[in-house]
């Protein structure tokens, strides 16, 4: 895994948490939830290829 990906995930987490807090304090809990959901989906889209590679590697390890 690249170190840049970890920094991207951390940046998204910080930005989503700040925006979520601002939205919650202004009384827009629905938009705060959708912002959190969008951040989660974005991060998952970045991580899924690495998880796929992990499972492929494990499958090759146990093939006969």
TrEMBL record:
* UniProt KW Transmembrane keyword: yes
The record ties this protein, via InterPro entries, to:
Spore_III_AC (IPR009570), Spore_III_AC/AD (IPR025664)
Tell me yes or no: is Magnesium among this UniProt entry's keywords: no
Please give the Pfam families that the UniProt record associates with this protein: SpoIIIAC
The UniProt keyword set, sorted, is: Membrane, Transmembrane, Transmembrane helix
Q: Which residues cross the membrane?
A: 6-23, 32-52
What is the protein name given in its UniProt record? Answer: Stage III sporulation protein AC
